[in-house]
Write a structure and sequence with these properties.
Elements: H1 14-21, H2 26-36, H3 41-48, H4 52-66, E1 71-74, E2 77-80, H5 82-101, E3 115-120, H6 123-140, E4 144-149, H7 153-162, E5 167-171, E6 180-188, E7 190-194, H8 207-211, E8 214-218, H9 227-234, E9 240-245, H10 251-257, E10 261-265, H11 272-277, E11 279-283, E12 290-297, H12 304-315
Parallel strand pairs: 3-4, 3-5, 8-9, 8-10
Antiparallel strand pairs: 1-2, 5-12, 6-12, 7-10, 7-11
Amino acid sequence: MTTPDPSAIAPHSTAFHRELRRIDLNLLVTLDALLVEGGNVTRAAERLAISQPAASHALARLREALDDPLFVKTGIRMEATPRALALAPQVAACLQQAYGLFQPLPDLDPSRMQADIRLTFPEHIETLLLPSLLERLFHEAPGIQIHARSLPLDRVLDAIDTGEVDLALIASSAESRAWQSREPLFDVGFVLMYDPRQVTLPPRPTLAQLSRLPQLALGYVGSYPSAVDRFFAEHGAPRRQTATAVGVAVVPEMVRRLPIVAILPDLIALDEATRTALVIEPFAPDELSVTVSMVWHRRHEAGALAYVRTVLRELTGEGVHGVLR
């Protein structure tokens, strides 16, 4: 998404923040009420739902801070001074803007949204979710353009910070950063895949048996240890990785040709011929899974990206396998 360049806005100095912090900005609310009520302290107090002495005290503080009486008695009436009259439109505009900052954003019509959104996710999740996401957006929010790309997991968080991507779906327990938001979507288990003509294994082999065989890993995680790596290590049976594939599409062909095993997310879409030729069985179904989460920078909490997150949340609300129905 195109976002304003923070460097284009001159930052306030430390002295500015410290000086502003010393000023009670609630005094502006009192001044506005006094201006509306023609300097009548009693009516201003009623408008503010405070006591008359509290309103008088606030007026005294305003006079001291602004070095001006602000309101002077003329006969039986109070009249605003030239300084108070000059401040009136500025104070009113300032308070209106401040009030608006604290109001919830209005619901936006998705059909009128215009945005280019850059997503990144592992190949197998892209295969599962991107067609359904694009179909929803085509009908409901045609002005939202999606540009998907694949990044190693160890680059994703930096890419979110720099704006290289707007939203990431990650299948990892790696911690996001304090200024990034994260929302879990669904859990993914794993399957063991091998060709029985290349590898001889008993049904439900042990980790010790698997650790002695060459294994094919996926390159998505980059320099992070994968959930499968950690699972083997925690059980004292480190994996014997002999090859790494960029994506999952090539894995069935590799296990057909080599005496190698692969442990993959159970979201892999396989044709019937592949399922018939290869052994594909659940791997540690009660012990190993990962959570797929959405991660984004907090500067994108609202707008078109919030709508895309809502669509993804709805698509996976009944479990990710429901997307395939």
